[in-house]
Amino acid sequence: MRIDILTVVPELLDSPLSHSIVGRAIKKGLVEIHVHNIRKYGLGPHRQVDDYCYGGDAGMVMMVEPVFKMIEELKAERNYDEVIYMSPDGELLSQGIANELSLKENIILLCGHYKGIDHRIREHLVTREISIGDYVLSGGEIPAAVVADSIVRLIPGALTDETSALSDSFQDDLLSPPVYTRPAEYNGWKVPDVLLSGNPKLIREWQEEQALERTRELRPNLLSKNF
Ligand code: SAH
């Protein structure tokens, strides 16, 4: 799989994509992530990428041309399944969307900045819009890193133990059961006995019960999705 991220602040994406599971998946060759500076096609000697907002509102808007040219360059090299604009008014990111996107071959994640991008890009070039939540961030870079991370960890081989993605929260509309590690007791705080029982059937039942209980308590809306 290949993910191309288009931004005017590429530095913001250096660290989140170079470490941990995403960094390892890149090193293993499971995914290619390319970050492109839209300023490459900026206008004039200052490589301008934004301009004043028509209508006189405060704030700058990203211009059509640099984004258009950047997308055209990439599209000339390969076909893209989706051109996704990160936007607070987009579809709310969910595990379902991450699952769906992890099956794609090539996707573009377009990051807005300032007041956003000229709406014509959204009308003519963007195929999908994704939000990471009902709040406004300064740019689409952190949202793009969130989307990329949520996708990459689902690619087979990205996690050392693939089954661990299956027991993650939301994967089956249930929250994850609590997890513990050694020591079995610290400060008098004990790990539940069943986890030390060595009985896989009992452990599995306990985990299922806990997942259901936590979902009922914390996110009952997830359960009602199934009825
Ligand atoms: N004026 C716009 C917000 C611009 S914020 C509005 O009110 O909708 C600048 C950029 O940050 C956006 O273009 C978008 O790419 C990104 N962004 C901000 N919040 C986001 C969110 N919750 N999810 C995804 N992208 C977001």
Can you offer a commentary on this structure?
There is one protein chain. The chain is α/β, with parallel strands linked by helices and 227 residues long. The strands form three sheets. Strands 2-1-6-5-7 form a five-stranded parallel β-sheet, sandwiched between helices. A two-stranded antiparallel sheet has the order 3-4. A two-stranded antiparallel sheet has the order 8-9. It folds into two domains: 151 residues, SPOUT methyltransferase, trefoil knot domain (Alpha/beta knot); 57 residues, Trp Operon Repressor, Chain A. The chain contains eight helices and nine strands. The model has no long low-confidence stretch (mean pLDDT 96). Helix content is 33%, strand content 19%. The structure holds S-adenosyl-L-homocysteine (SAH). The site of S-adenosyl-L-homocysteine (SAH) has 19 residues, from strand 5.
